[in-house]
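step 4 of 6: structure.
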Amino acid sequence: MNTASIERPSKHRNAGYAIERYCPRCEEYWPADEEFFHPRPGGRLDSWCRACSNEYRRQHRQTKH
Ligand SMILES: [Zn+2]
């Protein structure tokens, strides 16, 4: 099968008033802006929402410490 033309599944949906972005960690859609997702270099947004990112970082810090 030729998969070259098939793009990765969309992580966004159009909520009407705004584009929402899917967070695979909490399996929720959030508005795709920097208020809900940490900005990444290059103008992209983090794949996890801020809440999940923060939680992960907190846990990661604990394990590491
Ligand atoms: Zn999340």
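step 5 of 6: annotate
 - The CA atoms of residues 34 and 45 lie 7 Å apart.
 - The radius of gyration is 14 Å.
step 6 of 6: archive
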